[in-house]
Amino acid sequence: MIRILDIFLSFFGLFILSPILILFFVIGFFDTGSPIFRQERIGRFEIPFILVKFRTMHKDAESVASHLSDPSKITKFGLFLRKTKLDELPQLWNVLKGDMSIVGPRPGLFNQKELRNERKIHGVFDVRPGITGLAQTSSIDMSTPKLLAETDAKMIKKLGVLSYLKFIVMTIIGKGQGDSAKR
């Protein structure tokens, strides 16, 4: 049922939000010259996939986890996108393709060894990664790998249609802090 909701919501989200996506693409082009950020992430069963987001940092910024990145590299438009979590909208494409779910554990990077090990212990890789979830709405980020993996596992155990919808609503109304790299 969750996958059906993912397909339905991502398809209609991309369709309905297409004017905003186009506007942000154009603004992002003038802001950084390259409005889309692509990065290899760890997916379900630890299979790599390419995550897409709106670029929030200058093109020369190092490609690391947000909590390790240089906040001075965030553009003014990027700061707006991060605060409003609108930089995540292109990931609806990842959801539609089946790489991700709307709700699930945030996909990590392959170089985040401690997080990867903790997630293996807790079975987090048995599900699709998501755009939002319990950790994001609780302001838990990748800087605390053990807590993040435990929180992800807790969410996975209790995830059903109602909690899925609850996490989406909580994200839309601004619950959680968004990205930890701040300007």
Distance between the termini: 39 Å
The main β sheet shows up as: 2 strands, antiparallel
List the strand order in the largest sheet: 1-2
Q: What would the principal axes of the Cα set say about the shape?
A: globular
- Would you report the number of β strands? 4
**Unreliable segments (pLDDT under 50, ≥5 consecutive)?**
179-183
Average pLDDT reading: 91
Summed up, the helix count is 8
Q: What is the H-and-E element order?
A: HHEEHHEHEHHH
Helix content: 40-55%
Rg from Cα: 15 Å
Helical/strand content category: mainly alpha
Provide the β-strand percentage band: 5-15%
Can you tell me about this structure?
This protein is mainly alpha-helical and 183 residues long. The chain has helices at residues 2-16, 18-32, 76-84, 91-97, 113-121, 134-137, 145-158, 161-172, and strands at residues 36-42, 48-54, 101-103, 130-132. Strands 1-2 form a two-stranded antiparallel ribbon. The protein has a two-stranded parallel ribbon with strand order 3-4. Strand 3 (101-103), helix 5 and strand 4 form a beta-alpha-beta unit. The longest helix has 15 residues, at 2-16. It is globular and about 45 Å long. Residues 179-183 have low confidence and may be disordered.
